[in-house]
Amino acid sequence: MTLRRRYVPPTWLKRIRDVAETKATRLLIIGAGPAGYTAAIYAARAGLAPLLVAGLQPGGQLTITTEVENFPGFADAVQGPWLMEQMRAQAEHVGTTIAQDLVTRIELGAHPFRVALDGGGAIEAEAVVVATGAQARWLGVPGERELSGFGVSACATCDGFFFRGRDVAVIGGGNSAVEEALYLSNLARHVTVVHRRDAFRAERILQQRLFAKSNVTVLWDHATEAVLGTDAARPVARAVLLRHARTGERRELAVDGVFVAIGHDPATALFRGQLAMDGGGYIEVEPGSTRTSVAGVFAAGEVADRIYRQAVTAAGTGCMAAIDAEKWLAHRGAEAPSAASYGPDYGTGRAA
Ligand code: NAP
């Protein structure tokens, strides 16, 4: 993976400084992954002059991804960080203000919604798009992080293609692990599912499909202790070190790829108790829309999606959220803040 140095145009720096003083916006977008940036592009082009708070990892999960081959529009693979820089530049180009800050508190109980930022600023927003994403859970074993992108992945749909005709392991025993294994069984030569117990918690129908696959083996009762790499200057995964849960016996399983599938954590702590969520902490939206349980708050991307989890689906729901927000604002007849409260000349807006 080639990480490019981020070019920060002076105008952008100026905007970041100024945003600390911003008091009001019609549309606040929280999160700078494909969902947030796409919502920003659509909202800006609809004349909403959105403010996007980018958080700690602008660009989201794609900034830690190497090659992206499945985002439409590029005949050749592109680098994840580069793709996200392009989305950010496009969002800014059409009129989004991006704040390199972190939302530390949000109050959705009264209107306008109020937001506190880590940098000391405060925002009042007529509408909010939540696009804070989700993080894959990792095992936390030696070698896993170091070899991430070099044989270790948390997304079979994203990276399975690179392991055509090779041997891979899938770690986990829930629906995600079984689905990842099923997907990989169509590409890889052999798939070994490594599970720490003697039974899956995945749905029975998925298990039946998995057991019917001739190129899938399940290793029950094995904990993964490490991912082992080659001796090359830039090591790639070559095996997983396993320990039998009952006997304690250790063994190496030689594989070319390791897919960690032990669940995801949506970044929804800020909204707990304020937005309806399912048992896994994912924000609930009305089917076929991005509307949450609070009018004027919309959710896009993986924060509300435990199934698809793709950059392109996140971008799609980001587009939906902008359209939903624009319609909601129009219907509500919200007054557009004046140029004095939000525009190129920040700092004179309503008191927060
Ligand atoms: P999950 O159901 O929480 O399963 C996580 C699996 O990872 C469990 O088998 C767990 O083992 C294992 N695990 C957790 N930490 C581990 C560790 N440190 N080392 C080894 N194994 C570890 O997560 P999920 O499969 O991602 O599913 C999350 C939710 O999304 C579920 O409600 C699921 O039904 C849903 N989902 C649905 C679909 C679908 O409908 N097709 C697809 C994907 C996910 P233990 O069993 O030992 O705890």
Low-confidence stretches: 1-19, 334-352
Tally of alpha and pi helices? 7
| Ligand kinds | NADP nicotinamide-adenine-dinucleotide phosphate
The computed structural class is alpha/beta
Rounded average pLDDT: 88
Instruction: Report the sheet with the most strands, covering strand number, pairing sense and barrel closure.
Output: 7 strands, mixed
What's the overall geometry?
A: elongated
Query: What is the H-and-E element order?
Result: HEHEEEHEEEEEEHEHEHEEEEEEEH
Strand content: 15-25%
From the N-terminal CA to the C-terminal CA, the straight-line distance is: 43 Å
Radius of gyration: 22 Å
**Share in helix:** 10-25%
Count all strands and give the number.
19
Structural overview:
- The protein has helices at residues 10-19, 34-45, 80-93, 156-159, 175-185, 204-211, 311-332, and strands spanning 24-30, 51-53, 67-68, 78-79, 97-99, 103-107, 113-117, 122-130, 134-136, 152-153, 167-171, 190-194, 216-219, 222-229, 237-244, 250-254, 257-260, 264-266, 297-299.
- Strand 6 (103-107) and strand 7 (113-117) form a beta hairpin.
- The longest helix has 22 residues, at 311-332.
- Helix 2 runs parallel beside helix 7 (311-332).
- The protein contains 7 helices and 19 strands.
- Strands 1, 2, 5, 6, 7, 8 and 19 form a 7-stranded mixed sheet that branches. A 5-stranded parallel sheet has the order 10-17-11-12-13, covered by helices on one side. The protein has a 3-stranded antiparallel sheet with strand order 14-15-16, with no helix packed on it.
- The chain is an alpha/beta fold and 352 residues long.
- Mean pLDDT is 88; it is low at 1-19 and 334-352.
- The protein is elongated, with a radius of gyration of 22 Å.
- The structure holds NADP nicotinamide-adenine-dinucleotide phosphate.
- NADP nicotinamide-adenine-dinucleotide phosphate (NAP) is lined by residues 139, 171-177, 179, 196-197, 201, 262-264, 280, 306-307.
